[in-house]
Amino acid sequence: MSAVAGLVAPGFEPVAEAFARAFDGHERMGAALAVHVEGRPVIDLHGGVRDVRTGEPWGPDTLSVVFSCSKGLMALLAARLVQQGRLDYDAPVADYWPEFAQAGKEGVLVRHILGHRSGLSAPARDLSTDDILDWQTVMSALAEQAPLWHPGYAYAYHAITQGWLIGEVVRRITGRSAGDAFAELIADPVGAEAWIGLPAAHAGRVAHLTVGPTLQALVAQQAAARRPGVVDWPERAMTLGGALPHALVTDDGGFNDPRLHAAQIPAAGGIASARGLAAIWSAAVVDAGTGRLVDDATLEKGLRVQSDGHPFFSAPPPWPRWAMGFQLDSEARRYLSAASFGHDGAGGQVAFADPVHRVGFAFITNVMEADDPRATSIIDALRAVLA
């Protein structure tokens, strides 16, 4: 087992041991784990390598790209605006963003974009890396596009587009960028190191990402199955037609590109520490002195199931479940209890809240794998301790 360092409260040693075992077979890996119970940290651990190119260790203040854990953060931001009476899940998107009412999208509701039902899971035209660095270029492309299916009829995972869609609604409501609104309403109130659009002052703290063998194998399998002239819409949802590599990272490209770290890509480009994510999710269910981020009445609305079962584009089970942007407990992503809510992220990242055990949880890593058991094993150990 790898040597790890940090805080372990008495009784939580089995969780720390599960974290250490996650390094087995991953010599190039760095990772961090943070768990809050009743608003206080009981686990704050880190270990391994921050940057395999230099051998620099992962330290207590290392940050990492958290991929689709960012969607959970945007779901919390949307819920905060609902709580303030500034956003209505059942309102048409065009009520906030009039230019969106084009090409058959007049009836798209806010809950459709949060629940992956808007029909805009992927861009119809190819986007470049330069395109996705420019907010207005992306907004124009999405506003002009016709849905890929009748909005509300079915769901398909909006891997990257969801964040831009809800981010523009946030911008229209608040007059601030999605990243600035997130800082004001979510991260700053709990003192969490988490950003949508990383400030330049923190650029040197970000872990370097590598693609592990299971993700390499999955990307190769997908490439072999690709058929010339046939659009693979779920794949396009990830690559945006060329803006991102199939594994989401290369040695110095994709989400290893500092330009993407600084840009606001709210569905996938969030950057955070594990302790920052755990503090945010803890504050979603516990007042630890800084106030709850979201009250129970708002959570009841935000956790109503929007999408589950078979997606619009065929995919094998198990299938996930989503509420208003929140990923819910399912066979595809098993959390601490049936009441847990949060979001996982590409490569093995997981962050969530559990109102039953009053937990905020975050596991982040820089070695990206597919069908990854690392966080699940840690969650299983935590469940056993809390039981």
Describe the structure.
- This protein is of the alpha+beta class and 387 residues long.
- The protein has a domain at 67-73 and 184-379: DD-peptidase/beta-lactamase superfamily (Beta-lactamase, 3-Layer(aba) Sandwich), CATH 3.40.710.
- The chain has helices spanning 13-21, 69-83, 110-114, 129-132, 135-144, 161-174, 178-190, 213-225, 233-239, 258-262, 274-283, 296-302, 374-386; strands at 4-8, 30-37, 40-51, 56-57, 64-65, 194-195, 210-211, 271-272, 321-322, 327-328, 341-345, 349-354, 359-365, 367-368.
- The strands form three sheets. Strands 1, 2, 3, 4, 9, 10, 11, 12 and 13 form a nine-stranded antiparallel sheet that branches. Strands 5-8-6 form a three-stranded antiparallel sheet. A two-stranded parallel ribbon has the order 7-14.
- Helix 1 (13-21) packs antiparallel against helix 13.
- The longest helix is centred in the N-terminal third of the chain and has 15 residues, at 69-83.
- The chain starts with a strand and ends with a helix.
- The mean pLDDT is 97.
